[in-house]
Write a structure and sequence with these properties.
With 238 residues, the protein is an alpha/beta fold. The chain contains six helices and nine strands, in the order βαβαβαβαββββααβ. The protein has a seven-stranded mixed sheet, with helices on both faces. A two-stranded antiparallel sheet has the order 5-6. α3 packs across α4. It is globular, with a radius of gyration of 17 Å.
Length: 238
């Protein structure tokens, strides 16, 4: 199965918090979408790996993803190694995405910046003929995505472009709330975290409104780029 837009997240819920509106928008436009999580988020203060597995599955159904997988790297401890690079190369070659979305260049959680570099390097390596990978005992062909875009996460960073998600903000917020163990729940006995308050959820939506305001729409998500984006003419720009 070819996936048009493949998003990677260091943890389950990374993509939902930062790029799920963009994923839902393009799914509605007829593109195939998928998410691959690098870890199960097993070091999270709230919940457990098993709970987050279920929550990720529920979020995938809300976003109508074609695929969702988990590479089960070590939460908090995965490194940019040959083994981990090849795991991602294998998935890129398997699904042949035209666009890859991945973690922020730099963020509050060190896994995010490390995951960003890991996926970006794998996208390049995936196009090299002399790197051999297999799936189902069959050799894979090289494949390099046309573009890698980094979604903005916890830290405020200046975006290179924003995507109008006004028609998919509902799916975005629903997919975030699929992670009941991680975000605001009235009456829970779970410990407080920087993302478990009601104010945090409000700030997520408010942030999309702020980015949307700059391009004259209600809601938007923000991305950074590794190389310049080309347009055919100035009227392609909003």
């Amino acid at each position: 199965m070819k996936i048009d837009i493949l998003a990677f997240g260091a943890h389950p819920d990374d993509v939902e918090l930062s790029a799920s509106g963009t994923m839902a928008k393009h799914q509605k436009l007829g593109y195939t979408t998928g998410i691959i999580d690098l870890t199960r988020g097993e070091l999270g203060t709230r919940g457990s790996a098993e709970i987050r597995d279920r929550e990720a599955k529920n979020a995938a159904e809300i976003l109508k993803l074609s695929i969702r997988e988990n590479l089960e790297m070590a939460d908090g401890f995965f490194e940019i190694t040959q083994e981990n690079l090849l795991k991602i190369v294998q998935k890129i070659r398997q699904y042949q995405p035209d666009i890859v979305l991945c973690n922020a260049f730099q963020d509050r959680h060190p896994d995010h910046g490390r995951g960003s570099e890991l996926v970006s390097r794998a996208c390049f390596l995936s196009g090299l003929l002399k790197i051999e990978t297999q799936i189902d005992q069959k050799n894979q062909k090289p494949w390099r995505p046309k573009a890698v875009y980094h979604y903005i996460q916890y830290q405020d960073r200046k975006p290179d472009f924003v995507v109008d998600i006004s028609d998919s903000i509902q799916e975005k917020m629903q997919s975030i709330m699929a992670y009941e163990s991680q975000f605001y729940q009235a009456g829970t006995d779970e410990p407080d975290t920087p993302i478990s308050s009601k104010q945090f959820l409000n700030s997520v939506e408010a942030r999309t409104e702020n980015w949307g305001k700059d391009i004259g729409v209600k809601n938007a998500e923000a991305f950074e780029i590794e190389r310049f984006i080309g347009v055919s003419n100035l009227f392609d720009l909003n």
